[in-house]
Design a protein that fits this description.
By secondary structure, the chain is of the alpha/beta class. It has helices at 20-23, 45-62, 84-90, 106-119, 134-141, 195-213, 230-243, 254-257, 275-289, 307-311, and strands spanning 2-18, 33-34, 73-77, 96-99, 126-132, 157-158, 161-168, 174-181, 223-226, 251-253, 270-271, 295-303, 318-327. Strands 1, 2, 3, 4, 5, 7, 8, 9, 10, 12 and 13 form an 11-stranded mixed sheet that branches. Strands 6-11 form a two-stranded parallel sheet.
Length: 328
């Protein structure tokens, strides 16, 4: 795997927008903006998803008194075909655009890419953004929500929301210091109704490779935060490290944090390209700023599957990308 040290990359601002179910969850009060209707008064869920990304981008920039034309490049992705949502939003910005796709790992893939541009002095203002929507993901990967098909308890619930983060070389409260571009693994997993279990293998390998390369112990981090392994995948990850003699007692999963699994009907927990950034940019960053955490490793996980491949009984490749965030 490719491992990188960063010396001059800071989180300058973030913007978060979330849907109704996310608003009703444990972190509902932390988001910059929430909606009570996931259509947002618009005609389609795809249009509503693009609107969330536009708003998250604008919120992040407005906090610094900046405008869209002030950024050097937008790096963004989503779960739609041809990352259609991000591509649509990029047309409204008079700057360069780099579309990335890592499924639910998109946020940290974009962050790593943007951090390289900032650290090497190629760009001064890099905006990274990712979004997902329960309704569009259901239509994209499963069935339209009108179909009303029953779900298994291992299924994860796609988060509706968008997270944006502005990266600069100007010192701020949070600094990005390390990163690992993940490797794709194909374990032969074919169960599209349980992707948390599949992604746990990618998370395990990325975390282990990151720790070995940088010569860190797991406890070097106050928290190791995975993107969306769910309650099932999180247990598998813990067990794999346990076999290595490592007690991963500082592990958290964004999919377990964004919803109240006991009270909300979300099956095994949250997932989606917005899951990791919505939790990281709010709860995790708040803990860094208030001094509870000094250093966290965020590992966004992704299942790189396609509906056609699923229908053909092909296996699901998985990946995980890691970023270290530290209190400056």
């Amino acid at each position: 795997m490719l491992h990188i040290n960063f010396n001059n990359v800071y989180v300058s601002s973030t913007g978060t927008v979330a849907g109704r179910k996310e608003k009703e969850g444990p972190l509902g009060d932390l988001f910059d903006k929430t909606y009570s209707d996931n259509l947002h008064g618009l005609k389609s869920y795809e249009t509503a998803e693009a609107q969330m990304m536009k708003e998250a981008n604008s919120i992040a920039l407005n906090k610094l008194g900046m405008k869209l034309e002030d950024i050097d490049i937008l790096i963004a992705g989503d779960l739609n075909n041809q990352i259609a949502c991000s591509s649509k939003v990029s047309g409204l910005i008079n700057s360069s655009f780099l579309g990335v796709y890592g499924a639910c790992s998109t946020s940290m893939l974009a962050t790593l890419t943007g951090s390289i541009l900032v650290d090497k002095g190629i760009a001064n203002n890099v905006l990274v953004s990712s979004t997902s929507s329960f309704a569009t993901a259901e239509r994209q990967f499963r069935y339209p929500i009108e179909y009303g098909g029953p779900k298994k308890f291992t299924t994860t619930y796609t988060v509706t929301g968008s997270g944006a983060m502005l990266l600069k070389n100007t010192p701020s409260e949070i600094k990005i210091t390390e990163g690992t571009f993940g490797q794709t693994f194909d374990t032969g997993w074919t169960n599209v109704n349980d992707m948390g279990s599949a992604m746990s293998y990618a998370a395990y390998n990325t975390i282990k490779s990151h720790l070995i390369n940088f010569n860190h112990h797991a406890n070097y981090y106050d928290a190791i935060v995975t993107g969306d392994l769910s309650s099932i995948g999180s247990k598998i990850l813990y067990d794999m490290f346990k076999e290595d003699g490592i007690d991963l007692n500082n592990h958290l999963d964004c999919g377990n944090l964004i919803f109240d699994i006991e009270k909300q009907n979300v099956f095994a927990g949250g997932s989606g390209a917005a899951c990791c950034p919505l939790v990281t940019y709010t709860k995790i960053f708040n803990e860094l700023k208030n001094g509870k955490y000094k250093r966290v490793l965020v590992v966004a996980t992704g299942a790189l599957h396609d509906p056609i491949y699923v229908f053909q009984k092909k296996s699901i490749p998985v990946i995980a990308h890691a970023v270290t965030f530290e209190r400056s």
